[in-house]
Amino acid sequence: MARIKTWVTTTRENVGSHKVVRMVPADEVAVDAGVKWAAAAVPRHYVSADEIAAVLRELGKPEAAEVLSGKLPVSKRTRSGELGEVLATQYVARELGYRMIARLRWKDSREMPMRGDDLLGVRIVDDVKLEFLKGEAKSRASLSTSTLNEAEAALLSEHGLPTPHALMFVAARLREMGETKLHMKILAAQLRGRIRSGDVLHLLFTFSGNDSLGLLRDHTEAYKGKIRRLGVGLQVPEHQAFIRRVFEKVIRDARAR
Q: Model's pTM, two decimal places?
């Protein structure tokens, strides 16, 4: 899948030892491209390709479309939050190179939030060392300081390290996918207390209708901790319309297959 940078213009700033990034589509053509890009990404976050293929093979196209649509959230609030998480997950995996899990596949109900860190990425450096990304994704039509403070509280939980619940969840999913080496390395790092603040990057990812660069810059400047920080703001002025268009296209495309 193409990277998010194919449909946005990106601005980067250093804030001390940290960084902030602003991404915004240049025009309506870019917004349309973003809708198509996001609609292509969403399904795999709710249903695995193997499951859809199996339903298509055994039951048929209408049933496969129903499986997917039955997983998607309905309420505007849940759609907003979960699209923000999908966008953030894609950013972490494709722009930063961390191994990510499409955790929305394991929701108990399509309208219930999941527990644990919004984003937990992991990568192996030099075939030995593990590096982790702990992140929060926030989606708002109008982003505010209070929303960033809410994310900050989550990032600072467990002394800023990934939560045990999130680590165990990701490790278990990786084992199920056959990635046994990474599964065991995560367990060893957690159970033997080998995760240090220097092994972690904090990500605060925002998806909003307003320009978040100034808010992220101020928030990052106020941070006095030792863990590296990256603040990323994706601004789509037509925030609510963008979300609606993405989910409508996901359902329409599923029924057309």
A: 0.94
